[in-house]
Structures are given as C-alpha cells and as structure tokens.
Amino acid sequence: MVSATEPRLYAVPATSEETGPLVAPDGAPPGPWTTASAYRFCERMAATHYENFPVASRFLPSHLRPHVAAIYAFARTADDFADEPRFEGRRQQALDQWEQLLEACYHADVPHPVFLALRDTVRRHNVPIGPLKALINAFRMDLTKHRHATFSELLHYCQHSANPVGQLVLFVHGHREPQLHRFSNEICSALQIANFLQDLSVDIPRGRIYLPEEDLVHFGVGHDDLLAGRATTEFTELMRFSVSRVRSMFHRGRPLIRRVSPGLSMELDATWRGGMAILQRIEDRGFSTLDHRPTLEKRDMAGIAVRSLFAFGRRLMRGEA
Length: 321
Description:
This protein is mostly helical. Helix content is about 60%, strand content about 0%. The protein has helices spanning about 35-50, 65-85, 90-105, 115-125, 130-145, 150-160, 165-170, 180-200, 200-205, 215-220, 225-230, 235-255, 260-285, 300-315.
C-alpha cells in the first residue's frame, strides 16, 4: 500500500535491476548531494535559462519556488537532450536513461540533484508520474517528427510537450480540479505555439516546420518560400491567421488566473501577458519572422511583472482575488 506521504504510482517498475545501473546522462556532478543542495542546483538552472515567461518567480510563495524549480530542471534537461549539439548521437539513449531515473526516484533516493529534488517534490505534493513521462515522450517525438499535417496534430504534440508543465504546477499548488486543468491546457498550448511562431527563423533551417501542412496549403505558402526566408503576402496572411488563433487560445484559458491561489495567480498573469506580448511583437514586425527571432527584453519583462502586480491589486481591492 502507498503511504499518505508517497506519490500515487502508475505502473512504475519498482527496481532497475533488469536494466543495470542507472546512469546520469546529463553529466551532473556526482555530489554527494543533499536534498537542500539538489534544490539549489535546480533553482540555479531555473534562474540562468532564458524563457518568455517567469520560472519560479518571486510571485510564488517562497516555500513552493524550489518545487517548481525542480520540475523545470527535469523538463529543461530532457529538452536539452533533444536539442543541444553535445547530445548528438546519443539523444534517444539519454532520454531512456532520464526516464529510468524518473521511475527510480518514485521508489528511492537517486544520487542526482534533479531527481533528489524531484522526489521530494512529488512526495510532498502527491504528483503523479504521468505528466512527467508525457514530457519525455514529447522530447522523443522531437527526434523524429518535424512536421505536422494538421492543427489537431500540432495540438496533440502540445498535449505532451506543454500541457503537462501546467498540470504539474497546478498539482504543486494543490489544484486538481479538472476545469482548472482544461484552462491551463489552453494557456500552455498557446504558449507553445506562440513560441513556434516566434522561432521560425531558428527552426526552419534545422528542418523543423511547426506550421501545419493544411495551413500552408490553404494559404498557398510553399516549402521553398519558407526555406528561402521569403515573407510573401501569402505567408503574412498565414501568420496573421496563426497569431489570431493563438490569441483566442490565450483568452479561453484566461479564467484560470482568477481561480487559483494568489501567488500562482500573479505568476500566471505574468506568463499570460508574456505570451500575448510575443504575439504582439510578431504583429508589430509585420508578421515577418523568417529572418528574425522577436524576443522580449528585460524592460519588457519588468513591465509585464509590474502590470501583473497592479492587476492583482485591483482584483484584491474588488474582492476578486
């Protein structure tokens, strides 16, 4: 029987005896690690990676920040296996080893900073393993699937690559209501697709086209135009449509902001505003992202944080927070 302090398990193997000794594929220092030093390792990773939205920011209650950082470190490292040049030739192996470490940490301490911290997080907040395994499956998809036939197919990818992150954050904050998770899925998928639209100039030369094939056909945009970086009239109309669609997704998910705990509410508001700001930055450039990656500067992030803080204050004064 699983005790009250243990996470609920979903057919997780109890040992790794058949697979041999567990290997740390990311090259993390061998330690020795304590739970406290493991959390500091994860928090440094969260603080030093650029994102369009805040990760474990000061908006969150201080006792929850380390847990969000642990989840981020797990996902960030797995993402690196799929993308970073240093893992070329062993990406699949690294993801398999990462999954073995994940399964092992649900049963015992694993001498790796990410998984020592993650084990403590899932024990304290009863986090199921499903969303964490879904993330690994998304990074496996990245190794072989570089185009999507339909928008529904792209959303299916987001269900593995983006939505689990929001689900995990909600679990850490004690929110398990299905409706809140549905709102979160809208925001997370919108963030993911906004990032795809932002990164066209980076992804297309690498052979990754996240614009659905059905949309390319509908608007008359050829692969040759994309590869050549030609921002044709047809491409502009496709981007205008794509940005509008993602904005609608952000708006469908926005009710989540008012229905969660105060610290998370401010964090989500900043995240939501960051995603919308990226879409606005794309529109301000005339939807031309084939030769340039629009980003948010530090002053933009500071402005978003201030606006989120004031928005929360107004809701608090009206008794809505």
